Each structure stands twice: as C-alpha cells, then as structure tokens.
Amino acid sequence: MNAPAPAKAPQVRFDVPMAARTTWRVGGSADRLFAPRTLADLQAFLASGEAVEPLTWVGHGSNLLVRDGGLGGTVICTRSGPKALERLDETTVRAEAGVSSARVARFCAEAGLAGAEFLAGIPGAIGGALAMNAGAYGAELADILAAAEVIDRAGKVRVAEPAEFAFGYRHAVLPEGEWFVAAHLRLTPGDPEAIRARTRELLGHREETQPVNLANAGSVFRNPEGDFAARLIESAGLKGTRVGGAEVAERHANFIVNRGQATAADIEALIRLVQNRVHEVHGVTLAPEVRIVGREP
To answer: Residue 5: which residues within 8 A CB-CB, separation 6 or more?
Structure first.
C-alpha cells in the first residue's frame, strides 16, 4: 500500500480579501497573504526571505479594523495554525498562537485546571490575546502566563519570561522584529465540574450582555482609569448611533456592530464620532482598544 503523499507546503497568495478574515467582516485585500498550518511552516516561510515588509500578523481577526484600501507588504494569518494545544506538566498548558481563547478555556476546564476560565469570554486567538494582554472579568492573560514563545524575522523561536514584555492594561511590548507564537499558562488544579460551571457562567454572561449575534470586534475602547468606556458612551446618548452600516450596539455601548452593509470607513468614522462626543460631554478622550491598520481607499 502506498504511503500518503506529504501535504503540500502552504504558499503565498495574492490580492486576498480580508473581510472574510476579520470579525467585523470589512476591509480591503492583502497584497500578499501567508497562512501557515504549523509552527514549522511559519519558521520555514520567515527563513526563506519571501515575507515582504511590512509584516502584519492577523489571528482570528477580532480586535482589528482593516481599512478599505487593504494591506501592503505581507499578512501572516495564523487562523489555520499554528494551533497545537497540550499539557506540559501538572499545572502548565502550552497553546500556540492560532488556538482560540475559548478552546483554551474549555481544554483547561476539562483538565481540571483553574485560572483560564475568563478566556472563554474573549474573542480571537491566543496570539492576539498575548499581544494585547487580553482580559475579562477582572483577570488578564499576564496573570497566568508562565512563559511566551516568540519568533524572529529569521524564523528562530525562543522562550522568554513574561517580565520581558512589560505587560500592562491591554498592552505588551515586544522586542523589535519578534512576534508571539505560543503561551505557556500556569494554572491551578481544581474540581473539573466547578471549573466547567464557571466557564459556562462566563459564556452565558457574554451572550446576555454582548451583541454576539452581530459582526463585531469585541470592545472598541479601553476603559479609562477609574471608569468604564461603555458607561461614558451610553451616558453621552450614543447607543444606537449609526454611520452608514456601523452602529453603536444597543446591548453594550463599547461595541460597534456591522449591521450588514458597513465599510471599514463607516466603522472608523463612528469610532471618531464616539471619541469626539464623549470628550465633549465628559472631557475624557477614549483610546481605541482595536488595532486600525491598512491603507485609505
């Protein structure tokens, strides 16, 4: 019996629409896009020198607005991989960049490891969660991070201590020319059923309080110190405000949803409108939590 042929290595694709690769479902095309399946694919691609600068890393496309003019350089899309998820020892789980945060939460719950439940309510994947120190329900990724794996422009991977990245509120500082490819999470043994119940509770809370049935990118603005962006936006009378097909969500004011026909320009204009109105009413300048990238059309 003949052995199966080895899988063909992924190739660079050209003029790839980004709307299908972002949770807002908007955006122009990437000039060049590479979608690795494994960490080895990614290492080989970077080592080959094929990656045209600048590099833009995209995971599951949450927390990201790609402008209608698209992206130059090379997009590295990790939605399809690397996505290995494994238990390293009794208390440590390793999750590669393409693994969804929700899947990590479920894996840890089934393993009877507590501490990752909050990840169930975070859209996107671990790579992006590392890059922004994602958090919810009073916890953030840096709280449970034992180590991070980063890759450089030549495809070399190293393991680094969390202190190297100066994690702050929705913020991490990476050395120039390096990117996150995996997280080592240090957790606490616990009762699997209790952990599963807590995970279900957080997921239920997300479904009740966030517009999960409409295209969105998660929270749009960072919470200012001592306050909440959603409270400031709602009290400024902005719930339901629209620009084109983009709308400040009725269910949660710190979300902007695509009602079906929005463009990236609509969403960006609504972000600016919200910032200006909140500043007029409250004297507070809201800082975007979402990353805005790409060219103007």
So the answer is: none
**195's tokens:** 């952990």
Boundaries of domain holding 65:
13-77
DSSP state string for 89-143: SSSEEEEETTSBHHHHHHHHHHTTEES-GGGGG--SBHHHHHHHT-EETTEEGGG
Q: Six-digit token pair at 226?
A: 């001592």
Q: How far apart are CA 148 and CA 160, in angstroms?
A: 5
pTM assigned to the model = 0.92
**Would you name the residues annotated as active-site residues?**
170, 219, 289
Dihedrals φ, ψ of 48, to 5°? -75, -20
CATH of residue 32: 3.30.43.10
Structure tokens at 117: 């439940």
Question: 111-158: per-residue pLDDT in tens?
Answer: 999 999 999 988 899 999 999 999 988 899 999 999 999 999 999 999
CATH of the domain at 254: 3.90.78.10
Residue 167's CB is within 10 A of a number of other CB atoms, namely 20
